[in-house]
């Protein structure tokens, strides 16, 4: 396919904010994709060159893109920076400057999607000496053959920010509409911006949606799901868990207290310590063990101690859900999450880190065990399998402390015991709940004493002044809406430390955010939404200043949430709910 055809789709998607219209545009496009082009087009249309579960990144800095634009268009560097300041978008900068270039590209061949895709993928594998020059050459070659609008989207794909505002939910719906739209008689009314289908098909429509979402949660791979959907719903149903590829984890709702928790999960319920560590999904296939974070990042290399513990304590193939917690070797007390969070990102001196920050693994669920997929098994059965098969050793590898009870008093006692042991609270789980990947279904709830904190994504930052001159020191934070767009809710600069040894510091934040800078205007930088921070605040207020319509009173950093991805951040619906609840209390 010509790249210009895909660009037309991007442009259409960018021109509307209506989610249903976006779904229609995407689904019309998906319908037209041929079998031999689906692999790369399904990714490109989402602005990706690797599947969701793939950790590879293109690693191209803005500076390099500026250089490439300079080489291709002959524009002065100052001119490029000025355009960037004006547009606030490096993609649009490329579009404008490529449009102005004098030399004619009339004779160059039209770019194809495959060509763009292959070239962009090549950017990733390049490392070592000369790799920057080679990357520059490849990008420049692409831009030379590109028309202005094509240049815009090539650049935006390189920085993994298409800016056309749709989330995974829209892609899922588009798959359903594209491949089952006819069967389900789905009709989209553009004027009314509404969809309709015969009432008799409602159940079927919901079933198909659930099946497609289930397949996405299980495989975490839109390409595979779209390919299966193209073949029919039976093929979608047949997609299954693959040992070694991470699947989305089940999420938990919040309860207001023990009584409320029992109301959601029923009686009797399993109460468990809620450890303040970070979640890992462990896959074991023979002697191959992999460790993923809840964002499904592969952190096997960073955690050789977890791998060793699994080797020693489990002999069957399995997929386990567990919380890894740090502890003080001398006092044997659990440590808060921050103390071990640096292990997640650390790429060197791993063994030193293992000794300095030892961890205990607390297994609390199983998704697969000994050849059997456990997704449909009741929680109590899954737990029994773990109890029967796992060897346990305190401070190394154990099962989450659990109490099954119907008594509020007993649950309260257990809650106190958990808090006294340095945990965050307790989880309470429905004994008959199945494992629902990616959903906050209420088969389990958390009970914590503190006011609900918010997990917000950093979308912008401001360079400091004076002694903070070289650091980013104030951060624009955002929640998300249903379409996966980020809505600003305020700025935070409190709670960060001056010195790296004291905790999450401005220096650390600057290191994390600098490579994510998309554009800069004066001392304000826009950053790619990637870093999630947990925020405490005094009150949520209505505010016209920010795009969410809300602002936070006295926001303060609680901690960096390396374990959470932007898609996990607090939603505008939750903010609305917290806002109302807080008003109810006043
Ligand atoms: P939250 O991050 O506040 O939404 O709370 C849910 C998280 O608590 C899970 O994702 C786990 O990382 C963590 N957790 C700690 N202990 C348990 C447990 N026993 N069962 C389930 N999740 C747990």
Can you offer a commentary on this structure?
The chain has 586 residues and is of the alpha+beta class. Among the domains are: 253-447, 2-Layer Sandwich (D-amino Acid Aminotransferase, Chain A, domain 1); 454-584, Nucleic acid-binding proteins (OB fold (Dihydrolipoamide Acetyltransferase, E2P), Beta Barrel). The protein contains 21 helices and 22 strands. The strands form five sheets. Strands 14, 15, 16, 17, 18, 19 and 22 form a seven-stranded antiparallel beta sheet that branches. Strands 5, 6, 7, 8, 9 and 10 form a six-stranded mixed beta sheet that branches. The chain has a five-stranded mixed beta sheet with strand order 3-13-12-4-11, with helices on one face. A hairpin with an 8-residue loop joins strand 14 (454-463) and strand 15 (472-480). Helix 2 (19-32) crosses helix 10 and helix 7 packs antiparallel against helix 8 (131-145). The longest helix is centred in the middle third of the chain and has 18 residues, at 202-219. The radius of gyration is 25 Å and the shape is globular. The termini are far apart. The relative contact order is 0.09. The mean pLDDT is 91. The structure holds adenosine monophosphate (AMP). Residues 252, 272-275, 279, 294, 323, 364, 400, 427, 446 line the site of adenosine monophosphate (AMP). Adenosine monophosphate (AMP) is lined by residues 252, 272-275, 279, 294, 323, 364, 400, 427, 446.
């Amino acid at each position: 396919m010509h790249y210009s055809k895909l660009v037309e789709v991007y442009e259409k998607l960018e021109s509307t904010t209506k989610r249903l219209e976006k779904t229609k545009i995407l689904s019309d496009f998906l319908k037209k994709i041929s079998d031999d082009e689906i692999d790369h087009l399904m990714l490109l249309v989402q602005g990706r060159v690797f599947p969701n579960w793939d950790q590879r990144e293109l690693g191209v800095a803005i500076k390099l893109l500026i250089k490439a634009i300079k080489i291709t268009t002959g524009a002065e560097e100052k001119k490029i920076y000025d355009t960037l300041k004006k547009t606030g978008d490096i993609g649009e900068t490329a579009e404008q400057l490529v449009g102005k270039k004098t030399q004619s590209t009339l004779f160059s061949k039209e770019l194809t999607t495959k060509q763009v895709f292959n070239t962009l993928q090549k950017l990733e594998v390049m490392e070592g000496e000369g790799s920057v020059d080679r990357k520059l050459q490849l990008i420049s070659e692409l831009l030379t053959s590109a028309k202005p609008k094509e240049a815009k989207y090539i650049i935006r794909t390189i920085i993994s920010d298409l800016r056309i505002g749709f989330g995974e939910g829209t892609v899922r719906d588009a798959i359903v509409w594209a491949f089952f739209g006819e069967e389900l008689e789905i009709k989209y009314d553009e004027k009314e911006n509404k969809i309709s289908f015969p009432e008799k098909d409602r159940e079927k429509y919901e079933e198909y949606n659930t099946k497609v979402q289930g397949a996405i949660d299980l495989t975490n791979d839109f390409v595979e799901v779209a390919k299966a959907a193209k073949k029919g719903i039976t093929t979608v149903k047949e997609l299954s868990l693959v040992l070694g590829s991470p699947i989305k984890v089940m999420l938990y709702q919040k309860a207001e207290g023990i009584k409320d928790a029992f109301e959601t999960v029923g009686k009797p319920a399993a109460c468990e310590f809620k450890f303040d560590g970070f979640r890992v999904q462990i896959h074991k296939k023979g002697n191959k063990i992999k460790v993923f974070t809840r964002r499904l990042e592969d952190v096997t290399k960073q955690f050789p101690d977890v791998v060793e513990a699994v080797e020693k304590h489990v002999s069957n193939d399995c997929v386990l859900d567990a919380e890894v917690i740090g502890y003080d070797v001398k006092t044997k007390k659990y440590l808060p999450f921050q103390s071990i969070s640096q292990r997640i990102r650390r790429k060197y001196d791993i063994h030193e880190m293992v000794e300095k920050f030892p961890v205990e693994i607390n297994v609390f669920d199983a998704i697969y065990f000994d050849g059997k997929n456990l997704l449909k098994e009741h929680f109590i059965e899954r737990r029994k399998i773990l109890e029967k098969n796992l060897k346990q050793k305190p401070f190394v590898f154990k099962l989450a402390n659990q109490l099954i009870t119907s008594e509020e008093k007993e649950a309260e006692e257990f809650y106190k015991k958990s808090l006294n042991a340095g945990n965050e609270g307790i989880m309470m789980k429905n004994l008959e709940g199945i494992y629902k990947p990616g959903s906050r279904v209420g088969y389990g709830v958390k009970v914590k004493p503190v006011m609900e904190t918010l997990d917000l994504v950093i979308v912008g930052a401001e360079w400091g002044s004076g002694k903070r001159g070289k650091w980013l020191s104030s951060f624009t934070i955002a929640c998300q809406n249903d379409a996966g767009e980020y809505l600003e809710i305020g700025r935070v600069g409190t709670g960060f430390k001056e010195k790296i040894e004291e905790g999450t510091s401005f220096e650390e934040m600057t290191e994390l955010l600098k490579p994510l800078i998309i554009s800069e205007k004066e001392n304000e930088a826009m950053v790619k939404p990637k870093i999630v921070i947990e925020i405490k605040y005094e009150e949520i207020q209505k505010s016209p200043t920010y795009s969410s319509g809300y602002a936070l009173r006295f926001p303060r950093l609680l901690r960096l949430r390396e374990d959470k991805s932007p898609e996990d951040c607090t939603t505008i619906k939750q903010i609305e709910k917290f806002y109302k609840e807080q008003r109810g209390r006043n």
